[in-house]
Write a structure and sequence with these properties.
Layout: H1 10-22, E1 32-35, H2 39-49, E2 57-60, H3 63-71, E3 76-77, E4 85-90, E5 94-95, E6 101-102, H4 109-118, E7 119-127, E8 140-144, H5 149-158, E9 162-165, E10 176-181, H6 188-196, E11 201-204, E12 206-207, E13 214-218, E14 223-225
Parallel strand pairs: 1-2, 1-4, 2-3, 4-7, 7-13
Antiparallel strand pairs: 5-6, 6-12, 8-10, 8-11, 9-10, 13-14
The structure holds ribulose-5-phosphate (5RP).
Length: about 230
């Protein structure tokens, strides 16, 4: 799985790590935990690995995360074996203080949305540079059925977006991703509904209908809880 290019830095990495470590406090010991995808989640899994036995098992949002969890000695369960999850921990590409998110920079948005939907509580871990007033500076990922890619792209263009095919990426579900540029997302719930209704769209990378319940924002000095 490839990531949408983002300028990373040691500074940003330290903020990601701070937010990831803070998420450990939200875990009910002995529970099954939903785990997201990305570099911030990578820090979270590293932190989990230092607390053997804290969780009973995990449900994963991507093949990449499954590999990291297993390497950390954590059993990975099929979501279908469970009736629900107490907690989901995942990162984001952008977030507002209303806890609406853009996700999918790592291409795992569909499984991430599924695990988030199954969880009672969604704790989002991120560095402060991702906190925005209005979503949309980060191109909005939309997962599409491959044969519908051009059809969906035209429908998005008709709505004022500029979709760019993330060439070379096939998602864990065998689909393609369009990264939609040029959007200023003033009503995230409405746009999530509208784009999700286009035939051929699998998942829109807006997490607004089911937002995060808590943002743990890593800063230069600590973690802000929103
Ligand atoms: C993957 C995601 C990630 O949560 C998002 O891309 C943030 O990644 P990172 O923690 O590497 O900055 O949505 O599909």
């Amino acid at each position: 799985m490839t990531q949408t290019p983002r300028s990373g830095s040691n500074d940003s990495d330290a903020k990601k790590r701070r937010s990831a470590v803070a998420a450990l406090d939200y875990i009910e010991p002995g529970s099954v935990l939903g785990v997201g995808t990305g570099s911030t989640v990578g820090h979270f899994i590293e932190a989990l690995a230092t607390r053997p036995g804290l969780i009973r098992a995990a449900v994963s949002s991507s093949e990449a995360t499954t590999g990291l969890l297993r390497a950390a000695g954590i059993e990975v369960l099929d979501l279908n074996e469970l009736t629900g999850l107490e907690l989901y921990v995942d990162g984001a590409d952008e977030a507002t203080r209303a806890r609406h998110l853009i996700k999918g920079g790592g291409g795992a948005l569909t499984r991430e949305k599924i695990v988030a939907a199954a969880a009672e509580r969604f704790v989002c871990i991120l560095d402060e540079n991702k906190l925005v007033g209005t979503l949309g500076a980060f191109p909005l990922p939309v997962e599409v059925i491959p044969m519908a890619r051009a059809l969906v792209a035209r429908a998005i263009e008709a709505r004022g977006g500029r979709p760019v095919w993330r060439r070379g990426l096939v998602t864990d579900n065998g689909n393609h991703i369009l990264d939609v540029h040029g959007l200023s997302i003033v009503d995230p719930c409405a746009l999530e509904r509208e784009l999700g209704a286009i035939t051929g769209v699998v998942t829109v990378g807006l997490f607004a209908a089911r937002p995060a319940d808590v943002l743990l924002v890593g800063t230069a000095t600590g973690v802000e809880r929103i």
